[in-house]
Amino acid sequence: MTSIELRDVQKFFGAVQVIKDMNLKIADGEFIVLLGQSGCGKTTTLRAIAGLETIDRGDILIDGQPVQNLKCSDRDIAMVFQSFSLYPHMTVFENIAFPLRATRMSKADTDNRVREIAKVLRINDLLDKRPSALSGGDMQRVAIGRALVRRPKAMLMDEPIGALDAKLREEMRAEIKRLHVKQGSTTIYVTHDQIEAMSLADRIVIMHEGRLQQVGSPTEVYARPSNLFVAQFVGSPVMNIAPAEVKSSKDSAEVGLGGGQNFGFPSALISQLDAARSRSGQLALGIRPEGVLVSREEKKGYLPVEIHLIEPLGSYDIVDLKVGEQLLRARTRSGYVERTGDKVYARIDPEQTHFFDTASGNSLGVRL
Ligand SMILES: Nc1ncnc2c1ncn2[C@@H]1O[C@H](COP(=O)(O)OP(=O)(O)OP(=O)(O)O)[C@@H](O)[C@H]1O
Known about the structure:
By secondary structure, the chain is α+β, with helices and mostly antiparallel strands.
């Protein structure tokens, strides 16, 4: 049973604050992914939890006990890095067994532990090999085995598969997930890859410039991004964001994206929007490509638009549509639209529309 908590954690490197008032509660057995751009403070947060970095303010608690003054070795947490850092002169068996040496475990128990973890990681037939004879994926399996062999309270992983090629990354991603389901150890995983984050996490912690932006399940952060940063960081292709002008009367409502064409919206949404709207009144509309509906035939509520670009991606196409002065990316079934320059019709699905306050970037939380 291992829970981890960060309370008002702050960290400076010189005058630069790289972790800003971080608060986070991680439950026993949770798989948490810290997601953000390079330099946003993910690694520093992970290193602070492991005890490889001191913090300047706040508390780090493991199972309710403050540990910020404990040495790394007294926190009983294992860490796996992108570079495998295996000992080249040792066999796979010796590499995995290495952390057990300090515990003075008997030879027979060590042997059992190593073989058990090797079996879970499916490297039991590689135990006599040296690291130089292994593939990148197997090397990382050995590094994970070495981290897990002493049954640490929690597992911290810093871009553990970032150095592998795309196919292997996908394989290892599934493997890490399988391992977590089997072992159930509390895990904190750092990545800048949102697909990796979405596929692995119970909850994703999105960071930007040292500050936590949103914490939620992959579905939550995708469907209800709390601000413009999260909206554009999660999801591929990225969410369309366009300045929006809202016009409403008693029983009809329209949202314009410039250029004189307006999409019809249910007035219920607009009245919520009016209530939530900040004083600045500057709004941005957010819509994911799958929320931009395209029709080859004219239909009620659809506006005429021009096809600007078609990206065929195999199972579906991404189509850039010119709506007045604005480009909106839509997702259509493969081959549905044919040529750039063609006229088609488009509508924005009000149920998938997000509104943000442009000044603060915050979501107005308005939904149908
Ligand atoms: N030892 C250090 N001394 C000074 N500045 C540092 C140190 N370590 C990290 N930084 C700075 O702190 C900020 C956060 O770095 P950190 O490595 O935590 O970010 P990250 O989100 O993990 O990025 P990356 O994915 O590139 O590792 C960066 O601006 C980085 O340059």
